[in-house]
Fold this protein.
Amino acid sequence: MGARCFTVLFLLIIHIIPVFVQAVADGLSCQEHQQAFENSCYEFVSLQHSFLSAQSWCERGGGHLAFIQNDETQQLLQKHLQPEQNWWIGLAPAFDDLTLDLQGGLSWLDGSDVMYSNWLSESILNTDCGYIDTDSGFHWKTSNCSKEFYFICEFELGHSVSCMNHNPILQCGSDQVIEIDESIYGRKTPHYCRNSMPASLTASQEQCSWVNVLDLVAEQCNGRQLCLAVTDTSYFGEPCPGLGSYLLVEYHCKDKASGVIVKRSNPQDPLPVEWKCVPISPNPIQVETICHNCKTEAIGVQILLKDKNNCTKLDWYLEDKSNTGSSITCPADHIKLKLQKHNSKQLSIKTAELRPFQQDFILQAICYQLSGIIDNISEIYTIPFSLLNRTTNPLVSRVSDQLFEMTETNLTQEMREKLLSNICAAFNDSNPIQQSIELQMVANALKNIVEVDDELNTNAQVQAGCILVHISNSLNLDDMIQYNISELMDAATLIIQSSSHILAAFQRTKEEEIADYLFSTVEYVQKFLLINKEPDEEPVIINSTYISVSAQRVSPGNIHAQSFNILNVSSSTFSLPILGPNVLSVNEPVDVRQSNFYINPWIEEDNVNSVLTGFSLARNGSVIPVADLTEEIEIFIPRLDKGVNSTVLDLSNYSTMVISVATPNINMVFKLDPTEDLNLLVLLGYQDYPTTENYAAKVILPQAGNTQEERYTWIVSPRETALNPGVYYLLIRPIVAAGVKSVNASVTITSIAARCTFRAETSASNWSDSGCRVGPKTTEDFTHCLCTHLTVFGSSFFVMPNTVDPSQSAQLFANFANNPVVVCFIGAIFLAYILTAIWARRKDLQDKAKVKVTVLEDNDPFAEYRYLLKISTGHRIGSSTSSQVIVTLQGTEGGSAPHHLNDPEKPVFERGGVDLFLLTTPYSLGELQSIRLWHDNSGDHPAWYVNTVMVQDLQTDQKWHFLCSSWLAVDIEECTVDKVFPVATEMDLKGFSNVFFMKTTTDFCDGHIWYSVVSRPPSSNFTRVQRVSCCFSILLCSMLTSIMFYGIPTDPSEQTMDLGQIQITWSQVIIGIQSSIIVFPVNLLIVGIFRYALPRKKKTKQKKNKMPEPLQMEKDFEQNNVTIHFLIKDIQRITYLFANAMRCSVPKKVIHCENADIITLLSELQNLIEEQHFMHKNEASSVFWTYIHHLYKQLENLAGEVKLLGPSGFSRPGCYSQVLLQVQSIKKLLESNFSSRPINELRTGSSNPKKDRKRGLPWWFVYVGWLLVLTTSVVSGYFTMLYGLKYGKDRSISWIISIAMSFTESLFFTQPVKVICFAIFFALLVKKVNYDDAELVEKICKKTTTSTDALDGVRLAKRDCAHRYYQPPPSTDLEKMRNNMVKQQKARALIMEILVFLGFLWMLLLVAYGQRDPNAYYFTQHIQQSFSNGIGESMSQSDVFTWANSVLLSNLFSSQYPGFITDGNSKLVGSARLRQIRVRTGSCEIAKSMQNSVPDCNAPYSWENEDMSSYSPGWDQSGFVNGSEEIITAWQYQSQSELRSYPIWGMIALYRGGGYSVDLGSDQQNASRKLQYLLKSTWLDKYTRAVFAEFTVYNANVNLFCIVTLILESTAVGAFEFRSVVQSVRLYQSTGGFQSFLMASQVFYLLFIIYYMFLQAKQLKRHKWAYFKNMWNLLDLAIIILSWSALSVFIKRTVQGDKDIAYYQKNKDQFPSFNDTAIADATLGYLMAFLVLLASVKLWHLLRLNPKLRLITSSLQRAWNELSSFTVVIFIVFLAYALTCNLIFGGKLYSYKTIPEAFLTIFSLQLGIFNYDEVVDSDPVLAALIVTTCVVFITFVILTLFVSVILEAFSEEQQNRQPSEEEEIVNLIFMKILSLFGIKCKKREADGKETHPSESTTSIS
């Protein structure tokens, strides 16, 4: 029981929190449908109720009808009121007292007076109630209180009113508790809780009062976050028995930490803690009546025990069952009692404290008499548990005991299931709920539990259904019906909503049990809805998301005369025939119950996918059986899907439609719509075209019917023709007269598959169609069913798959002119394929040239140990290089010589490229340890990003990998061009970053069919043309499957799989699988064929006994090709390579060989050999022994070169023979070394040839692939065009958009994400990358087979060791390169900055001046001059009216051009308006001495003195108005928001936008009449301070609106001065080329701003807070902010302009205010002006590189301290003279009337702008003195010193100026510009040579 009590307690808590309070910790929070304002929530109830009923509705939530205490509240309510409706507010007749005697007038419901009002002037009846009339401008009116209007409820924070049988719930936000401020019970006002008030009062009823229950309510609620106060009369007594009482509670919320929880109670002495043990009485005395003022319903029941023995005092002891806080232990036959109250005649016990024990309690009372003798020492009472549990419902009683202990919790799926299970069990163990408030609370709580559909599992749905049946059954209990039906109606609505949520969470288990619960619940609710219903009343309807319920009582005679459906939802419609007396009684009314289920609860029947409808007739709660009727019931069941298959057939020839039937035993409905009335023969054939002899069904149309649609409708029923699944052909032939060959007509055919079924419990399948048939009125929206009985109905729909008949190709293509969309789209795809294939073919030819292994030119001709280098350049931007790249290998046995990596036949090291090089060495380098790469930083783009390097030993097939991933550049990352990379370990190769990058690169470049078209590896056999063709085939196949299934509707009742925001239905999954089966197998086959087909071998004629050419072998040279210089270079090369191999230094004579001869070089070589032999003679493993074999071959080749040269080639005789002898001597030295130590020579030839391991498809399979590509592409394209022609133009366009979006999303999002995910999978789990290049290596081995050791001739070595790039660049050269590169980058950045800013400035000027119109000036001047005629310097009130009658009206209204002003070109928009602003009476004080002479005083205008009262005509303060509304507004003050105006500056003051206004109308006669009325009524008087004439005109010639405000201002002296404010605005954008150019400029300007934002964000990220210290950064930031502000204002102006135009179009006779638009336009103009200013200032920064401008800037910076001091001095002097002149001339001269104007005049004096005459005329002596001293002191002294400071700083800066880096950059740019024109700067070049003699030439880019 404890668990169940906790469960239901939790249920009530989660009900209370979201429904009744929704408060937050820091303030007021209203419900979604309420509006928060100040400390109240306002709810606008769109229900028609009387005044008392509306107030009762508000009181149920603790509120009241709205009180409007100020204009702000009035304005808020106006915004949310529906127009053309009246709304009750809390205004009721005022009573003198609670006797309901009228006092007179109206008051608010709480009795307070009406201080603020918004009455529309009319007589107010004392017996009427107040409401807001929206038709009269939201003014207040009164009406009979019994009328039914909409109403506004107000729920005040901290204020609650609770009537009888309603318990107020008080709650504060989290971390807050309740503090009760005031609480009364009874009645203070007669207006609250009047719904149950008696109609008349008796004398006893007039005795009404109230009691203060602050302590009682505070004891319950203080210190709690949640509290349910008590309102029962049995608890508080009844202070107002006649009228009834209510509970008023005022409270506030305070933080828990702010103080101690307050318990309000009377102070008393602390109760001593005392326990005692007494024996258990075998027969304790039973108490007869000890419960006084016991509450039977509410929480906090108390039992009051009173003295019956006249004791002086009593001590009360109560049994202690808690066993806490006591150290004593009682014997087994004793019980422990605890002192409860001492020396008191009564004891109050809270049952909430005792009820949880669920046991009886023992009570002992010790009585004391006056004499002090103990009378009853041990009188024992028993308090039975039945008394403690006095509530009528034990379930709610258990909840009440723990309600205050619960605050908040979060529900999980498991908690929901457990909670619902416990609640269901509690309902099964307890009596039904018998009170409306409890029922509503439980129903609302259940809704909150089940409203999260995803959190309800099957068991939770079953338990929730159990609860629904219990609480819905409680609706019909006799004890429940006595309550307010509206409360029960709310509970019924909550029950249906909960049922809808359970239905939404429906699953395929326990469906029968859940469905039974839901239908039982609906039946109980329908039964409740019929309580107290009268016949033929409007039906009662409850709608929810998935369930709708309706019930009504109908007279038997009317049941066949109407159709039954549920309004406002997609509902079935039932039309009953006349039912005989055997079905319906003639005298008794019939209950009609109808329900709609939008999800089928019986999911096992998948074919039922319509709205499920239940319809039944009942009498006295019993269902009337309706079956076996002679006339059919007509039912229209709505379809949940709107899919339809329509086809247009041409009747000029035989037309056939293909239909695919997927389900047997269905009804086929064919609806034909011919273009003209024809007799048609319709034949249906199964799996073959029908003929007149062979068909499955046949009909001749039209048939009998009431409408054209019915006559041309054919229903094929399974009762007549069995329809099996398969393909059917529908043939239509027109029946024509003899001799007529064809008809020029067509017919539109709509095919629908339908079935009318009902739920039959006796049927084996539960669903049957017996007694029902499909009717001819079936459409794509409704199924027409005709049945002879009533039950639960449904319909089944099978949407035809989209089919197309190829035999109709000619007919479909005949409509090409009307629907060319898809055909043109497919044609465009074919054309794009052809163009792309041409491009791909060219790229394939280029790739063939790249597929080669570059044999390095500087390889030694006799070095035969081969290494294959595979170098990958990265994919980053700028990864390729134009530099000369050098490589060296380092192994355990030695290192290679530097080799230049280049290929004269193709570019190398391109971005993303892979280059293969063959490098040879004289011997094996052993295990490679590192590789060294460098370049010479030459070319236009010298930087190089090397990704990976792979080195393979072609002799042993061993591979080494080097993971470089580095930049070799002087200005990126490490800023180096020389780097050594170690060999990668196995762990490095399996690292995540390497595997991920390699896998991603491979998949994108080769695996992905789309991306690989661009990035295909050149070595792949899968060509670009083949890849493009595969893409083309896949695209067309995908388009075909897409258009086949496009538009097939989905079943809303079908269950979905929720993946976040994505929902997938089973049908969508099936379509996806079908599409994949259609598209991918054939395309995977095509791709596989192209990828794995081997290339075709070229047949070549082979010559017998022909040896392959050796690597790098040249033909024998002629004698003249060898010179002395060539021999010297060759000897140097041999010596250099030998020294490099031995790791020793090269002899100096070999290095400096300018004057050395051949003999000397050979001698040095011989000495070097002898030296190395001596050093390595004892090292058997030394490289020396291997290298001398190679050296011997080189010397033999050298001897051959000498012989080719011959004796004639030497300058000295005998030299030839001497050289040969020297060479022979060295060879003999080497031969002796051979014999001195035998060695095992390393194998230098290639390994044995391997067998061809090629695996793949034969080469001729490529033709199979091309055939498949051609077939799939043509077929897919052809059928796609047929579908497009069939669908129609609109549907085709929709499909094209859909396929384009899907293709784009797949190509740019889905596919890349898939590749990345696969790469992550491989990197984390597989950790393997395929480096297999075995096939490529085999090709290389075959091509690089070398000859034997025998020399056939002389071999030429092309290596020139003198090249500088063979040596890594020194650090000094690198630094020079780096500095030069940085300067070039800065120069490029500077040029780009200047060009970008000039483009930005150009766009800015275009945008700025595009907003201006040169005609605006002339337009405004014309308007000002037209209306300023007749204006004097000083005008009286009569002069103002004269000007208005003559000038104003004559110019506003043209007699010659109606609707235009006098010029005939400008249209008056709407009407003109006059508005005046006044000051209050007595707005200033009169001097005491003049009070008798001057009656009153009115001050100049100010916002404080402005009069905002409303008057009667003639400024009468009585408030009575009699006249038209147009006249009334002239005397009624209207606020700025009402007039749609804004404050405006005048010459005297700033005026508010409100005032007293009158519209002049649209014609001159009416306007003149109004002016005469205003003149006679003295509308202008001495309190008038300003008159405004406001109007708007539009000139179509220049496309400008002109907003005009003519101001006549009056000072306190009474004269009026004229001023005009005219502003031109373009609201309609012009058309034409310039407007398009302007719009493009605006777009480009926005792009420039985004670009600058990106740059500034980078600067901010780089410099952090130092960014804000740079003035130019702040300037850029200001430009960006102003630009976005201008954009927002531009949008605001456009939107506001459209609103103003729309208002004018709807109210053409009223004054249309364009003030908001004018303000936005003016603001936009100011913003654009400041933008142009700031952008122009930025030009100074861009021109900072000019030495002169830089000198000026630095001079100002140097002089800034002195200038700032002088500026302060100058300002002080100016201010002194300005104050003096203001005091002397301020009252006489206009130029000095204010201090700012006097300061401006003195400043103008220094510029020579000065009116000397007016000053001299005013005071000659003082004027001459002031002017003379001002000119002498300021101009001649101070300003001269100011200029001197600047000149001195300029001179110092000239002397100390140092050239900056930016100047060098400018010089560099200048030199580049000159070089472009072929001009050389000789001086700078000479300087450069002197300063940098060793600097290498580099290109500047």
